Amino acid sequence: MKTIRTIQLAIILGLFLTNTSCDNNDDNDNSSTIEIESSTVTNLQATQSADYTTSPATITGDYIRFSFDSGTTTTGDDWDVAFRGTTILVNGGEATSDDEPERTGDAGIYIASGALADITEVDTELLEVDSATEGLAITTGSDNGWYTYDSTTHIISPIAGKILVVKTITGTYAKFEITSYYEDGEANDDLSNSQYYSFNYIYQPNVGETSFE
């Protein structure tokens, strides 16, 4: 009887340890992965002013800094991208002019072509930073980066299928598509409601994970 009882206790203990191990693994799996986030930013005002009495024109205005980690604007160094007029900066590399915020992070950015949902993987080899010698990672000018400019109507339009892919300063990744450059999504008659960004973005909050699936 003692032998039988010992075997029974061993079996019970083994089952207990197995269940405990499975539970712990389940807990670890659930806690180690954070769900991918999808969000929309509407009417982010990034106004600049231009003085055309100088040559070249003098451009002024604050760069509006945005953090994908917090999902909001910031005034500190914890920004990933910054907007002013049609210009987009990334918090990596170095400033290209004196009025830009200092680059304190190791962020990077590039433009991919396709639908937002179809860009499922970050190509880390394409990531670029701003450079005082090479210029901005996201180049400005019509058809050079994310927008076109109509010289007849003076309307700025996001180029469909241009997805901006970002490595954040914390080593996470995001992708976003600019949907409008005008407040409430449509230019008014005198274009006075320009320089308001609206964009959809997907944020991968798991550090080092390059997949958006």
What does this structure look like?
The model is unreliable at 1-28 (pLDDT under 50). The chain has one helix at 2-32; strands at 37-45, 49-51, 58-60, 64-67, 72-74, 81-84, 87-90, 108-113, 147-149, 156-158, 162-167, 173-182, 194-204. It is of the alpha+beta class and 213 residues long. The chain has one helix and 13 strands, in the order H-E-E-E-E-E-E-E-E-E-E-E-E-E. It is globular. It is 15% helix and 32% strand. The strands form four sheets. Strands 1-13-12-11-8 form a five-stranded antiparallel sheet, with no helix packed on it. The protein has a four-stranded antiparallel sheet with strand order 5-4-6-7, with no helix packed on it. A two-stranded antiparallel sheet has the order 2-3.
Give a concise summary.
The chain is an alpha+beta fold and 213 residues long.
Encode the helix/strand succession as letters: HEEEEEEEEEEEEE
Could you give a short account of the major beta sheet?
5 strands, antiparallel
Number of helices: 1
- Global geometry: globular
How does the helix and strand content classify structurally? Answer: alpha+beta
Low-pLDDT ranges: 1-28
Oligomer type: single chain
The strands making up the biggest β-sheet line up spatially as 1-13-12-11-8
Radius of gyration: 24 Å
Mean pLDDT: 89
The termini sit apart by 57 Å
Estimate what percentage of residues fall within beta strands: 25-35%
Please tally the β strands and state the result: 13
